[in-house]
Amino acid sequence: MNSRYEAVIGLEVHAQLLTDTKIFCGCSTKFGNPPNTNVCPVCLGHPGVLPVMNKKVVEFTVLMGMVVNCKINEKSIFARKNYFYPDLPKGYQISQYEEPICEHGKVEIELKEGIIKEIGITRIHMEEDAGKSIHDHSDATLIDLNRCGTPLIEIVSEPDLRSPEEAYLYLTKLKQIVTYLDICDGNMEQGSLRCDANVSVRLKGESKLGTKTEVKNMNSFRNVERAIAFEIERQIELLEDGKQIVQQTLLWDADTNKVLPMRSKEEAHDYRYFPDPDLVTIVVNDEWKSSISKQLPELPDIRRERFINQYKLPAYDANILTSSRQLANYYEQILTVTNDYKSASNWVMTEVLKFINDSKISIEDFPVKPDSLGKLIKMIEENIISGKIAKEIFPEMISTGKMPEQIVAEKNLVQISDTSEIESAVEKIINANPDDVQKFLAGKEKVLGFLVGQVMKETRGKANPKIVNDILLNKLKR
Ligand code: ADP
Ligand code: MG
Ligand code: ZN
């Protein structure tokens, strides 16, 4: 990036709320039902029907607002945002415009270890989702209205972000919060979390904001980062060529890693917003607010501190383990079986996360349940198996779902702690490697590791390495 310029980014993030029913009717929000079956006259937009507000949507939105330090407005209203889209049967979306429910918040992102930046939250409002147009049919576009009326919150940031990386960190933070609150599953690939990025550039030192474009259609965190980086470069090139930025909406194309123009940007007045006459003012009084605040769970930053203090984990481990509520829960469930905090952390951070990242599954779908991994760690702790054997049987636990003690018994992998058996293996190795023994006695201490390895091999990895080490040293020094 040309160092004379500075990027300015503001994100509009939509999160689909995990309520059982839709925002203004009793239809199910269940994903994956046959097309056009989760519908009723209200969400189909038939004339004469009346929407009724889902109380849970208000509670979820207020929870979010509280966590990101928003002012929770006592009164807020719904507005109609008018536009035509085939998957919007009413011809308008019910949203909030003037007087949204939450305003003036902030979240902290950690740029580098210990370096915190505050990102302002302009507002959070409630709205309904539209249906889905399905274009991948050869001769027609199909419409599925199951998603019509699914509750969303829109979280609008201040233009405080200065780089694609900051945007990535901010989004990660929002995902972490919504998943901790259990108000949204945070899945960007499946569209439950969506992000539109507003991007402009300006010369460093300039205080006026440049003309912005809005990039849509990024379905992963990495794509958001890439799309913003691309758009920053595109704008700088235009300005360097003496051209102007046109305010417009762009689509990110993940196949070509480019942005494509979608439409010229509409202005708020194009939507002819007006207060929805069918819905009453939402009133969140102090009493309701305080009962909602009682539903606040332990939040990520606090849980992270607790992991450091209670389990004596390095900050690095605690960061990763508390990155999602589900992962933190998994870790803590292991600790109901074993007290080896650090070892449990190592297993989760390496073996478990490697597998779920490689196979793109969530921790809830990981086949080895935490009590089973806890047992495995306990078996190492109690010297029943070696750490090496544990690593070897773990893939089998994943593929078969068997408990570790069953695999260990079936394969006869119990660690040898019987000293006489180890002693004879040690003697055999000493006799077989006289040159190495000489080297060791002449002061080359590194050779010891080789000899230990040979004994481990001789015992097919089952010897207790500490005992091998002790016996070997003992015999060599005699
Ligand atoms: P619009 O009316 O075009 O939707 P808003 O004022 O509602 O614009 O802002 C939408 C988002 O764009 C917000 O996240 C805001 O922070 C961001 N934004 C506004 N102006 C700029 C700008 N010049 N450059 C980058 N982002 C901007
Ligand atoms: Mg906007
Ligand atoms: Zn309905």
Helix amount: 25-40%
Q: Determine Rg (CA atoms, Å).
A: 29 Å
Low-confidence stretches: none
Strand order of the largest sheet: 2-6-7-10-1-11-12-13-14
- DSSP summary, beta strand count: 16
Q: What proportion strand?
A: 15-25%
Number of helices: 15
Give the biggest sheet. Answer: 9 strands, mixed
Count of discrete structural domains: 3
Look at the helices and sheets and give the structural class: alpha+beta
Small molecules held by this entry: adenosine-5'-diphosphate, magnesium ion, zinc ion
Approximate shape? elongated
Distance between the termini: 67 Å
Mean pLDDT equals: 92
Describe it.
This protein has 478 residues and is an alpha+beta fold. Helix content is 39%, strand content 20%. It has helices at 55-67, 164-181, 221-240, 286-293, 300-311, 315-321, 325-334, 341-358, 370-381, 387-400, 404-411, 419-432, 434-441, 447-458, 465-476, and strands spanning 5-16, 71-72, 75-76, 79-82, 92-95, 102-112, 115-128, 132-134, 142-144, 151-157, 193-203, 213-218, 248-253, 258-264, 274-275, 282-283. A hairpin with a 2-residue loop joins strand 6 (102-112) and strand 7 (115-128). The longest helix is centred in the middle third of the chain and has 20 residues, at 221-240.
Layout of secondary structure:
Layout: E1 5-16, H1 55-67, E2 71-72, E3 75-76, E4 79-82, E5 92-95, E6 102-112, E7 115-128, E8 132-134, E9 142-144, E10 151-157, H2 164-181, E11 193-203, E12 213-218, H3 221-240, E13 248-253, E14 258-264, E15 274-275, E16 282-283, H4 286-293, H5 300-311, H6 315-321, H7 325-334, H8 341-358, H9 370-381, H10 387-400, H11 404-411, H12 419-432, H13 434-441, H14 447-458, H15 465-476
Parallel strand pairs: 12-13
Antiparallel strand pairs: 1-10, 1-11, 2-6, 3-16, 4-5, 4-15, 6-7, 7-10, 8-9, 11-12, 13-14
Helix pairs in contact: 2-3, 5-6, 7-9, 12-14, 12-15, 14-15
This protein binds adenosine-5'-diphosphate, magnesium ion (MG) and zinc ion (ZN).
